[in-house]
UniProtKB/TrEMBL annotation:
Gene3D superfamilies in the cross-refs: 1.20.140.150
GO CC annotation: bicellular tight junction; plasma membrane
Assigned keywords, A-Z: Cell junction, Membrane, Tight junction, Transmembrane, Transmembrane helix
Name of this protein: CLD12 protein
Length: 245
């Protein structure tokens, strides 16, 4: 597997990263991080479920899809620590993942459209595709950690709320979407790491963000003969004279 080709692994990694970012966006926008179900013993009234998101809060009667109480300013008055942390963690994870996608796209475009024989004078400015994919894999792994840790914490914090107050709290679908998106980010980073390890030549250094010199420079320009080589050629041409006794 050579670094000069666009392989299915890099394309699959880009698609997986894009799907994971879309999942994170859905988890951020959906008001379904925590449910608080309030029961009533009055037969003339219906139970109420309060859906709590990162930015809004909505209260609905059972069997109704309309919000009886809709609070669009909930993000300024969040009183639950796990949701407050998620307000900062998930956008940061999305920004990191989008940066990784941008690097991944640069690496794929470089391998697909850049000539395999670079200009020697511009070699130091050329982007190394393997380096782009390596950094993108690290960013995807970082985005996974930023997203997964607070998302799993919601489950434990929900149990804490049930013990502290009443067992009326439950985590909702956004938790599963965020954890699945974190898994997609981890899968994307693994694909990029595998591609990097497979395409990287063994003698090359492990860290290759930019070309420090033109790759395989000796194949693009003829090397000048050294002084030793010229002397060797002269010595070969000079006949050896021996004196007979």
């Amino acid at each position: 597997m050579g670094c000069r080709d666009v392989h299915a692994a890099t394309v699959l990694a880009f698609l997986s990263g894009t799907a994971s970012v879309a999942g994170l966006l859905a988890a951020v926008l959906l008001p379904n991080w925590r449910q608080m179900r309030l029961y009533t013993f009055n037969k003339n009234e219906r139970n109420v479920t309060i859906y709590t998101g990162l930015w809004i809060k909505c209260a609905r009667f059972d069997g109704s899809r309309d919000c009886v109480i809709y609070d669009p300013q909930w993000y300024t008055a969040v009183d639950q620590l796990d949701l407050r942390v998620l307000q900062f963690a998930l956008p940061l994870s999305m920004f990191t993942a989008v940066s990784a996608l941008f690097l991944c796209m640069i690496g794929m475009c470089n391998t697909a459209f850049v000539s395999s024989v670079p200009n020697v004078k511009l070699a130091k400015c050329l982007v190394n595709s393997a380096g782009c994919h390596l950094v993108a894999g690290l960013l995807f792994l970082l985005a996974c950690a930023i997203c997964l840790t607070p998302s799993v914490w919601v489950i434990f914090y929900n149990n804490y709320l049930n013990r502290k107050y009443e067992p009326v709290f439950s985590f909702d679908i956004s938790v599963f979407i965020a954890i699945a998106s974190a898994g997609g980010l981890f899968f994307t980073s693994v694909l990029l790491f595998l591609w990097y390890c497979a395409c990287k030549s063994l003698p090359s250094p492990f860290w290759q963000p930019l070309y420090s010199h033109a790759p395989s420079m000796h194949s693009y320009a003829s090397q000048p003969y050294s002084a030793r080589s010229r002397l060797s050629a002269i010595e070969i041409d000079i006949p050896v004279v021996t004196h007979a006794s």
